[in-house]
């Protein structure tokens, strides 16, 4: 067990400041002119920045659609046309996440060495869109498998890269809500992706001689390419890079804000050395493996989302109706995710909010196990979908907690997300078709994984709580003002 002072060298401590509004602190008559001037510039900066980073939500929506379109295509002949047998469909789903595991940490390390993340992330997006269209022209299982693996390899650059990009522009007290808004794209994608998929699968069969499921990959792939090209011109780069969309005063303030936010916790900008040392420090830190394993269990417990259309189809309706039934739970999930994450940010608490979300997941699984009644099964889908925010809160907790140094933070996000993605890699095998239509065994396994995640996060919370207590004792002994504290 390391000492509190040693722990602080790797982990980032949260200051006990009050939560600010979305566009900085409010003006009042007692502020001096210089303070008022800064607040006006800061509000303008955040408005411009929020407009540009909102494009990440659109990218994430298409990222999720490209990731989950195979489940929808399955309802209209994907397995039969490609001659899949046994667990080959599960392997097809898993192959994308294998690519994720390989690329996440190296990609975030690359981001610390470049000045144009807008070009890097957008180019990767256009390429995975192109590969998505290639799945649509696949004539064998192995062609689709190799294309999907490469899609995952390229998609791995986006999610941890976007989280890192946000952390380079927003202060601690601003980051939680922006992260929640960004990841709300999961619910939007699953809701409207199902509507789009139902429309394509219902109307495009036989058009130009192609099956409807192939058109699903064609259309979503082309949309991804176009949005990727747009991102090259809309996404922001780092504060240290030129930004023609900001005034000189706004650009200077953007850099100053990050310097202030990282004061006492490492440099705001990445250094050009020590990359391997950062990776080694994380690989030998039990806390990184603990919270990474918790993320792995969380992701695996949420694996129902990969097979949501399949679970909806167990209620006995046609493929089109089944896809339409997927929409309401995910619309509600989007509202729930933003609400819970915003409250978590306002109360500066993570563990309780994440646990609440996972308890909703467990409730949904128990309901689904209990009966094949249509009403109860459909209500269970609502409970499951609301739990998606647990992953958001856990990732935000990681971003809040681990080293504030830019290079370390980038590698930490990629490294722990890499461990977490291993849960996605194995989780498709939790849902073999032979266990349907009840999928009782699948639900039981996911319940155990959710409980494991809660348990591991409780251990992590207790560790941080002890560090907070030790910091308080040290301050009292030395008669110091209250300093930084970990979020719990």
Given as residue ranges, the uncertain stretches (5+ residues, pLDDT < 50) are 1-22, 264-274
Shape: globular
Kindly report the average pLDDT value. Answer: 82
Gap from first CA to last CA = 19 Å
Strand order of the largest sheet: 1-2
SSE pattern, N- to C-terminal? HEHHHHHHHHHHHHHHHHHHHHHE
Structure class: mainly alpha
Classify the helix fraction into a percent range.
over 70%
Strand content: under 5%
Give the number of helices: 22
Largest sheet, described in full? Answer: 2 strands, antiparallel
Query: What oligomeric state best describes the polypeptide chains here?
Result: single chain
Number of strands: 2
Radius of gyration from the CA trace?
Answer: 23 Å
Structural write-up:
This protein is mainly α. The protein is built from 22 helices and 2 strands. Strands 1-2 form a two-stranded antiparallel sheet. The chain starts with a helix and ends with a strand.
Descriptors for this entry?
488 residues, mainly alpha, two-stranded antiparallel sheet, 22 helices, 2 strands, disordered N terminus
Write the layout of secondary structure elements.
Elements: H1 4-10, E1 14-15, H2 33-53, H3 55-73, H4 78-81, H5 88-111, H6 117-136, H7 141-155, H8 158-167, H9 172-183, H10 185-203, H11 212-234, H12 248-261, H13 275-283, H14 286-301, H15 308-313, H16 319-325, H17 327-347, H18 351-370, H19 374-386, H20 389-401, H21 406-426, H22 440-478, E2 484-485
Antiparallel strand pairs: 1-2
Helix pairs in contact: 2-12, 3-10, 3-11, 5-7, 5-21, 6-7, 6-8, 6-11, 8-21, 9-17, 9-20, 10-11, 10-16, 10-17, 13-21, 14-20, 14-21, 14-22, 17-19, 17-20, 18-19, 18-20, 18-22
């Amino acid at each position: 067990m390391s000492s509190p002072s040693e722990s602080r060298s790797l982990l980032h401590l949260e200051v006990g400041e009050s939560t600010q509004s979305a566009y900085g602190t409010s003006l009042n008559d007692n502020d001096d002119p210089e303070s008022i001037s800064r607040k006006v510039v800061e509000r303008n900066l955040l408005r411009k920045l929020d407009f540009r980073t909102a494009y990440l939500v659109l990218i994430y929506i298409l990222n999720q659609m490209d990731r989950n379109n195979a489940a929808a295509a399955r309802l209209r002949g994907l397995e039969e046309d490609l001659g899949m047998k046994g667990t080959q469909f599960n392997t097809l789903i898993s192959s994308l996440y294998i690519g994720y595991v390989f690329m996440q940490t190296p990609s975030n390390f690359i981001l610390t060495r470049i000045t144009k993340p807008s070009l890097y992330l957008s180019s990767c997006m256009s390429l995975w869109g192109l590969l998505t269209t290639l799945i649509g022209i696949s004539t064998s299982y192995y062609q689709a498998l190799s294309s999907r693996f490469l899609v995952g390899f390229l998609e791995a650059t986006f999610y941890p890269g976007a989280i890192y990009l946000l952390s380079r522009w927003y202060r601690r007290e601003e980051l939680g809500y922006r992260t929640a808004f960004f990841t709300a794209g999961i619910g939007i994608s699953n809701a409207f992706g199902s509507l789009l998929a139902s429309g394509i699968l219902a109307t495009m069969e036989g058009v130009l001689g192609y099956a409807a499921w192939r058109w699903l990959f064609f259309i979503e792939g082309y949309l991804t390419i176009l949005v990727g090209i747009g991102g090259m011109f809309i996404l922001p780069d780092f504060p240290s890079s030129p930004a023609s969309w900001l005034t000189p005063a706004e650009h200077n303030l953007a850099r100053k804000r990050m310097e202030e936010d990282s004061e006492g916790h490492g440099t705001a900008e990445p250094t050009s050395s020590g990359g391997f040392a950062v990776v080694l420090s994380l690989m030998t830190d039990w806390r990184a493996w603990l919270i990474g394993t918790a993320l792995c269990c969380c992701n695996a417990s949420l694996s129902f989302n990969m097979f949501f259309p399949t679970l909806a189809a167990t209620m006995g309706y046609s493929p089109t109706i089944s896809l339409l039934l997927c929409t309401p739970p995910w619309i509600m999930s989007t509202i729930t995710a933003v609400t819970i994450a915003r409250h978590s940010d306002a109360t500066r608490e993570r563990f309780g909010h994440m646990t609440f979300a996972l308890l909703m997941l467990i409730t949904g699984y128990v309901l689904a196990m209990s009966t094949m009644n249509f009403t109860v099964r459909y209500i269970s889908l609502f409970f499951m979908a609301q739990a998606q925010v647990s992953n958001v809160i856990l990732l935000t907790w990681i971003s809040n907690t681990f080293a504030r140094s830019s290079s370390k933070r980038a590698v930490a996000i990629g490294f722990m997300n890499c461990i977490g993605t291993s849960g996605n890699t194995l989780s498709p095998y939790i849902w073999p078709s032979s266990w349907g239509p009840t999928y009782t065994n699948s639900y039981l396994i996911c319940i155990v994984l959710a409980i494991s995640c809660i348990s591991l996060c409780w251990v992590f919370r207790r560790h941080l709580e002890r560090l907070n207590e030790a910091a308080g004792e040290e301050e009292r002994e030395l008669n110091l003002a209250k300093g930084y504290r970990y979020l719990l």
